[in-house]
Design a protein that fits this description.
transmembrane; binds calcium ion; membrane; single chain; alpha+beta; 205 residues; PEP-CTERM protein-sorting domain-containing protein; Jelly Rolls; signal; transmembrane helix
Length: 205
């Protein structure tokens, strides 16, 4: 009975504490050096989350972001005939589980005006799209309109216009997965707890 009580209390503590490891970060690009970014260039560090530009490159542009003059944002660049040049990728050092909100700049095009993709087992998977663009480029505050839980964890987000227009990204609020070190610590703690339970059980036999 006593052992069962210890087990139940331990499980409650474990279940209560684990979700608190989910961390939230807002990437606003204000600390990034303005100008063109090549793959691997740092875009932001927020807490333990580091964001870099991926293979679809872009620029940090100063001024004209959602917060007005002086506000920096990530711009996909209008790179010519290749539609992928209108895409920009952000690569993170930790897996992202949700996009909580996002401000985005885009305009109406013949196709879908704005999409977010993540790498899939095969082709990239569209996790969000919007066809709300007007004829002129415009900022959309929290374009997602609520938390977007990703179908699986990812370290890469790909933002693009499907047609011929560049896009801008700012104030990207994400939820990311716990520190690997914390997970290991919890594994050790949990292993120790259940090992203790097993020892107690064996001692009783
Ligand atoms: Ca900004
Ligand atoms: Ca680009
Ligand atoms: Ca359109």
């Amino acid at each position: 009975m006593r052992l069962a009580t210890i087990c139940a209390a331990g499980l409650v503590v474990f279940a209560t504490c684990v979700p608190t490891f989910a961390s939230i970060a807002t990437v606003d690009f204000e600390s990034a050096v303005p100008g063109a970014k090549v793959s691997g260039d740092e875009l932001a560090t927020v807490g333990s989350l580091v964001a870099k530009v991926g293979s679809q490159t872009g620029s940090i542009v100063a001024g004209g972001g959602p917060a007005g003059a002086g506000d920096q944002y990530l711009y996909s660049d209008d790179g010519g005939a290749d539609p992928q040049d209108r895409a920009v990728e952000i690569v993170f050092n930790k897996p992202i589980s949700s996009i909580l909100s996002l401000d985005a700049l885009f305009q109406d095009s013949g196709g879908t005006d704005f999409t977010i993709r993540i790498p899939g087992p095969g082709p990239n998977i569209v996790v969000f799209s919007s066809n709300a663009g007007g004829l002129n480029p415009a900022w959309f505050t929290d374009v997602i309109g609520g938390p977007l839980v990703l179908p699986f964890y990812t370290t890469k987000l790909i933002f693009t216009d499907n047609d011929t227009n560049p896009v801008g990204i700012d104030n990207l609020k994400v939820e990311y997965v716990p520190e690997a070190g914390s997970l290991i610590a919890w594994s050790v703690l949990a292993g120790g707890f259940f090992g203790f339970v097993r020892l107690r059980r064996n001692a009783r036999v």
